[in-house]
Amino acid sequence: MRRSLAALAALSVALVVGVTGVRGQEVEASMTRNPTVGLTYRNADGMYTNATMMSQVLLSYGMEEQAVSCIFRPSRRTETVTSVTVNVAKKHIITNRPDVVQADAGSFAGAPLTNMTFTLAMEGQVGMSAYTLVVVTDVDTYTLDGMVEVGGFVLKSNGRVVSGEDNALQLGNVFEVAAKPMIELGVMTKTFGSSPSWEDVQIEVSSMDGVNYKQVEYDSSCSSTGYDGGRLAAGCGAGFAADGKTFGLKLSPYRVGTGAFKLILKWPSMELDGEYFVTELIVRMDTSKTAPCVAMGGDVKVDAGGGMVSVEMFNLVSPPAPSTVDKVVLSYGGKSYDHDQRKSMLVQPDQTIVFRVGKGVAGESFDAKLQCVFGARSMEAKYVGGKLRVSVTGKAELPKEQPLPAKDNMNRLAVRVELDRYEPETYTVAVHNKCVAAMVGLFGVSADEVGLRSVTRGSAISELEVYTDKDCATEKEMVMDAWGGDGCEAAKAMDEPCGTVRVLDVFCLANDGSGVSGVAPGTVAAGATLASWAIALVAVLGALVVLVLVCLALWVVYRRSSDSSASEYSSSGPLGVPDPDDLLYNESVVRDVYGRSNGAGPTAEAVAERAKEAELREEFPRPPSTSAASGRDTDDASSTYTV
């Protein structure tokens, strides 16, 4: 005999009974304090019911589980269970065939009680599915019915569910995707009661390795219901139709990255027990074919004076390229230029390739080509957004340095900016005009009120200046807030690639052109005048100190000279010749003038000569001499002998 406890249908009462972690409903109100014969659920209040169990779950991330537990009481004490199974009505909703775990739960009225637990897995589609627990004994067959409602949505392609973390949308290779970038997916939805708004769905593009390779463009300005008639708005690569029946996905041409990315789809208004629905769409591409190098097409302006130009490209580094590009060659007008490796930026996801090109004639325009070289492999670039054209424009001459003159009650604020793509000899009028335009936009002044103090090396460092009636500290903070950081905002303002412009310094200028930091308007001129008087005073004091030191040094020299003269050696010998009998004469170290060698003592000839001189002195004594200048007797070296 088959007993269907669901046949006792009555009023439905909302309860959580015998179901773990989900919200449920009973379809009948038969409840008892003790388990009845057959299969019953036990609620939180300890009451037993044999009603059909209704439960709801959210299919977040494409999967959910529900644990079901019930008590089995046989009609006879000696009954033996021969089989236990769970039958599922819709296997595309409840995707498993649950195993039932049996455990002893004691006894009641002499009959054994058995706890039976099983888990329902939902990894398919949304919707509703019934299930039945069937217990067969050697005496009878017992059943217990349940119903699960799976809410949320799934995305389908060719009848197959592709959303959820265990599923994926598989696409062709890079060329096939580029040929057909728009993909339409079906949407299957199940809501609880009233339908939430599709406009509430939040879409996020996420990479698989932390880098957004821009396979799909999407930002906060895009509408989640922007898919209309097979079209999406520019810059928006994903969206639902307004009725929620289809989902559009548009891939950016030739954007490959690692070959995989995902979209995270959140629906806050689809909520159950304080949690909202969220799922994801993983997209995988066939990477068996090598992705081409790609350039953003359009017009590239080249200054007539030559210099540095840049082209935005991608797929030049790994991934998706097998290795980093060795060389990129720009060709136009019969000339070719290799890329400047030092100034180019080979980063993910976009690469800025810089070329130093020669002079041209303003007004000329050429179709250009880019050739990418990877070792022995060379390929011409693909162009997104049209052909690549080079237009020669601007003036070839260099800008003249024109500092702003001092102005009453106004500060002159200098902004020192380094532009990586240029050198002083390539910082032309056209490049300078872009910098002037950026200063005009930032400070709200006219172009005539922007001066150029200098252009120096390292790459090209231009020092621009403007008038301001604010203090320098405030203005410096404003400039650094607007143009500081990674340099992208300053680069955008000057129509240069991100990362190629840096603000090095911001400071006020005194009337003499020197830098003064953080002063208020009207004080720079006074400060400069005070500084001039201070410099003059310091110069005069310094000169006086030097003069005093020189006089002191001369006095010291004079004193030493006087002391030395008082102790000098004198002789009554011939001019410049000391008396040979003097002690100093005999102890002289250098005696070569008298025929003696160093340290050797007088020679025999010198001794004989000395004796002869002594005899002459005795025979002819020297007469006293009177100085004509002083009238005093002298005995100095000016006296001579008369023989």
Poorly predicted runs of 5 or more residues: 1-29, 517-533, 566-573, 591-596, 625-643
* Number of DSSP helical runs: 7
What is the helical fraction, as a range of percent? 10-25%
Please summarize the sheet with the most strands. 11 strands, mixed
How many β-strands, per DSSP? 39
CATH top level of the largest domain is Mainly Beta
Q: How many whole angstroms does the radius of gyration measure?
A: 51 Å
What name does the CATH topology of the largest domain carry? Answer: Immunoglobulin-like
Mean pLDDT comes to: 82
Task: Please identify which CATH superfamily of the largest domain we are dealing with.
Answer: Immunoglobulins
Shape: elongated
CATH architecture of the largest domain: Sandwich
As a percent range, the share of strand residues is: 35-45%
**Roughly how many Å apart are the termini?**
175 Å
Structural class: alpha+beta
How many distinct domains? Answer: 5
Short description:
With 643 residues, the protein is α+β, with helices and mostly antiparallel strands.
Structure description:
The protein is α+β, with helices and mostly antiparallel strands and 643 residues long. Helices cover 16% and strands 38% of the residues. The strands form seven sheets. Strands 1, 2, 4, 8, 10, 13, 14, 15, 17, 19 and 20 form an eleven-stranded mixed β-sheet that branches. Strands 3, 5, 6, 7, 9, 11 and 12 form a seven-stranded antiparallel β-sheet that branches. Strand 30 (369-374) and strand 31 form a beta hairpin. The longest helix is centred in the C-terminal third of the chain and has 44 residues, at 523-566. Residues 1-29, 517-533, 566-573, 591-596 and 625-643 have low confidence and may be disordered.
